[in-house]
Amino acid sequence: AKKAIKKTAAKTLKKSAPKKATKKKKDDLMCFLTTACVQQYGLSDRCYELNSLRHYRDEYLLKTPEGKHLVQEYYALAPKIVKRIFSDPKKESRFSYIYHQVLTSCEAIENQKLEKAKRVYKHMVTTLRQLYAL
Q1: Are 94 and 68 in contact (CB under 8 A)?
Q2: Quick count: other Cβ atoms within 10 Å of Cβ 77?
Q3: How big is the chain by its Cα radius of gyration, in Å?
Q4: Residue 21 CB: number of other CB atoms within 10 A?
Q5: CA proximity to 132, closest of 79, 78, 84, 91
Q6: Which residue in 20, 52, 76, 108 has a CA-CA distance of 20 to 30 Å to 4?
Q7: Phi-psi region of 112 (alpha: psi -120 to 50; beta: other; left: phi over 0)
Q8: One digit per residue, pLDDT tens: the chain, 134 residues?
Q9: Cα 132 to the chain's mean position, in Å?
Q10: Are residues 108 and 117 in contact, defined by beta-carbon separation less than 8 angstroms?
């Protein structure tokens, strides 16, 4: 399923991906989504998954008040979550969970189910907040 999602998404991203990321790479390094993809799975910082999520953030979420709030909340929480995950003996399973949610979100984005992608994200963040008492 992952390969099929990547293949299908490549066409869409080539047409619509932003030319420059709006967030500095340095800022992304403490984000749990980036960490899950890049460090745990050896993907590029410019991989399909991260490009899809960045494009979704820039072209959909940041254009609504709720979306802006979610993005601000994410950047405030992400470093704390990453720190907790790295000290968690179950870190591999935590990053696996995050990556699975990333793939689910990317599939929803690819299928133009943008609200579903947001629900998946919100559920993931709620789960991680509860798990790490944040």
Answers
A1: no
A2: 17
A3: 14
A4: 18
A5: 84
A6: 20
A7: left
A8: 544 444 444 444 444 443 333 444 444 445 777 877 788 888 888 899 989 999 999 999 999 999 999 999 998 998 899 889 989 999 999 999 999 999 999 999 999 999 999 999 999 999 999 999 99
A9: 18
A10: yes
Short-list 80, 94, 6, 116, CA closest to 50? 6
Specify the pLDDT at position 38.
84
One-letter amino acid of 85? I
Q: Which one-letter amino acid corresponds to residue 19?
A: K
Q: How many CB atoms lie within 10 A of CB 22?
A: 10
Please identify which residue in the block is written with the tokens 């790490």: 132
Q: Tokens for 53, please give them.
A: 């999520």
Residue 36's CB: how many other CB atoms inside 10 A? Answer: 24
3-state secondary structure of 87: coil
Nearest to 119 by CA among 73, 55, 76, 67: 67
